[in-house]
């Protein structure tokens, strides 16, 4: 009843007119008949016109001859106090018939701002966007001279074998050099300088050259000792891990850049490498001058039984990278996996020669290069192991930085390498080592390595992903 009373007229003589109460028209026909007053009759209270209706009307045109419709008029009515607007459009076809349509003024209910935005320009994608996100970071040109020299020395050492081989083949392409190269090749073939143990080619001048200080400061590398070593004994240093190229071992034991002779006075240390390196033209002479020797059993026994203070090897030492090529395949940054469980040959060598064992752990050696993981690429790993079985060595698939960039190349990263020399393990000489004694010495050796790791990991391996792991 309340709703009905609201719609009843106070005057019972007639119904309520929609235009008097402010209600919308009852039908479209009613709207059409009452929507187009003349310009003179328009008042601002009831009608507001825009566009064509504000101008004087033009004379009536003749019927359009083309097919279709011709817009004749556009009118807009807005009700007071309401946000909705109606647009009345009249059309006339070619037969002169009039058509009228009524629609909202705002198309599809959009606001005037939205309608204006839809008319803005639409642009294509911006060019050159992929190049802005390049993953290669180039080195700046304004680098101090000292850093440039460091990079040059490390690059020369990394590529020295390739450089010496290239030089040899270039000379071999010149017939005039053949009378010199042929005798040299015969000398290399029959020479035993790498295994004799005399160290006659060793050059202290070259080992103490200032260029190696630039080499060591590139990373930088440092040498630390846990205890002093008396020069009245002979020693076997076991270097761990192998890494990719063992830069830390070269800096610590093949040069005087880190002050080995000051930390261990009276001891002559020889870094050992593959015997095949002493068959590479020119490089073998460079390696012999740096004091390197072959890692063969004959070479090790000759070095530890000849020369020294008493002519029997006292005061001499050799450094063996125990993990070898197999361990290089596990060289991953922030991980330390040592191939050591079944490596007991160097233990037997120490017992036969009476040399004390000295474990060495190089923190940061594995961080110098990035390498593909054997777990994510098992087929590649199998191929590398096959190459090691057939050739005696393998080639890890690695990369680091370049000369002019920080992401691609064969140069090692500039990351600190801390070489920690552990405490010596006394060995009793036996010409025929017993298996039980070998196992006991091996256990002591592994225990000293673990002690070094536990004592210094918080200082030198802060970014580690796990603890020391002994495998194979």
Automatic annotation (TrEMBL):
It is a multi-pass membrane protein. CDD domains: LPLAT_MGAT-like (cd07987). Pathway: Lipid metabolism; Glycerolipid metabolism; triacylglycerol biosynthesis. It is found in: Endoplasmic reticulum membrane. It comes from Heterodermia speciosa. Residues 59-68 have a biased composition (Basic residues). The keyword Lipid biosynthesis applies. The chain crosses the membrane at residues 152-174. It comes from the Eukaryota. It is an enzyme of class 2 (transferase). Keywords: Acyltransferase, Endoplasmic reticulum, Glycerol metabolism, Lipid biosynthesis, Lipid metabolism, Membrane, Transferase, Transmembrane, Transmembrane helix. This is Diacylglycerol O-acyltransferase. Its EC number is 2.3.1.20. Pfam families: DAGAT (PF03982). The keyword Transport does not apply. It catalyses: an acyl-CoA + a 1,2-diacyl-sn-glycerol = a triacyl-sn-glycerol + CoA. Residues 28-42 have a biased composition (Polar residues). Belongs to the diacylglycerol acyltransferase family.
């Amino acid at each position: 009843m309340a709703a009905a009373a609201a719609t009843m007229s106070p005057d019972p003589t007639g119904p309520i007119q929609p235009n008097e109460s402010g209600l919308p028209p009852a039908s479209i026909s009613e709207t059409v008949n009452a929507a187009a007053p003349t310009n003179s009759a328009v008042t601002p209270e009831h009608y507001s016109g825009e566009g064509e209706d504000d101008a004087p009307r033009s004379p009536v045109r003749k019927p359009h001859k083309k097919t279709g419709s011709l817009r004749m008029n556009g009118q807009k009515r807005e009700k007071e106090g309401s946000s909705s607007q109606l647009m009345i459009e009249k059309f006339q076809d070619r037969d002169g018939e009039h058509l009228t349509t009524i629609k909202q003024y705002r198309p599809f209910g959009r606001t005037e701002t939205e309608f204006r935005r839809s008319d803005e320009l639409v642009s294509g994608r911006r060019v050159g966007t992929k190049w802005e996100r390049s993953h290669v970071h180039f080195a700046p040109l304004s680098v101090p001279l000292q850093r440039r020299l460091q990079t040059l020395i490390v690059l020369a050492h990394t590529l020295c074998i390739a450089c010496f081989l290239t030089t040899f083949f270039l000379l071999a392409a010149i017939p005039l050099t053949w009378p010199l190269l042929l005798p040299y090749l015969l000398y290399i073939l029959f020479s035993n300088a790498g295994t004799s143990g005399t160290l006659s080619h060793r050059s202290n001048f070259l080992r103490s050259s200032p260029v190696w200080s630039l080499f060591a400061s590139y990373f930088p590398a440092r040498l630390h000792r846990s205890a002093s070593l008396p020069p009245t004994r002979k020693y076997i240093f076991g270097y761990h891990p192998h890494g990719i190229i063992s830069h830390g071992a070269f800096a610590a034991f093949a040069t005087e850049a880190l002050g080995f002779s000051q930390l261990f006075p009276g001891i002559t240390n020889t870094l050992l490498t593959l015997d095949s390196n002493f068959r590479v033209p020119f490089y073998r002479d460079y390696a012999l001058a740096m004091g390197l020797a072959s890692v063969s059993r004959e070479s090790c026994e000759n070095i530890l039984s000849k020369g020294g203070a008493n002519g029997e090897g006292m005061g001499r030492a050799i450094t063996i990278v125990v993990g070898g090529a197999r361990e290089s395949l596990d060289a991953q940054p922030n991980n330390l996996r040592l191939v050591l469980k079944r490596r007991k040959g160097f233990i037997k060598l120490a017992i036969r020669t009476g040399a004390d064992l000295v474990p060495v752990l190089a923190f940061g050696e594995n961080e110098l290069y990035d390498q593909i993981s054997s777990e994510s690429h098992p087929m590649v790993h199998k191929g590398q192991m096959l190459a090691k079985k057939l050739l005696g060595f393998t080639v890890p698939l690695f990369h680091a930085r370049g000369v002019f960039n920080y992401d691609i190349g064969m140069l090692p990263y500039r990351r600190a390498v801390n070489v920690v020399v552990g405490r010596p393990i006394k060995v009793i000489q036996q010409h025929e080592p017993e298996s039980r004694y070998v196992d006991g010495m091996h256990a002591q050796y592994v225990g000293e390595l673990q002690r070094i790791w536990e004592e210094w990991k918080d200082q030198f391996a802060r970014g580690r992903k796990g603890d020391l792991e002994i495998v194979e």
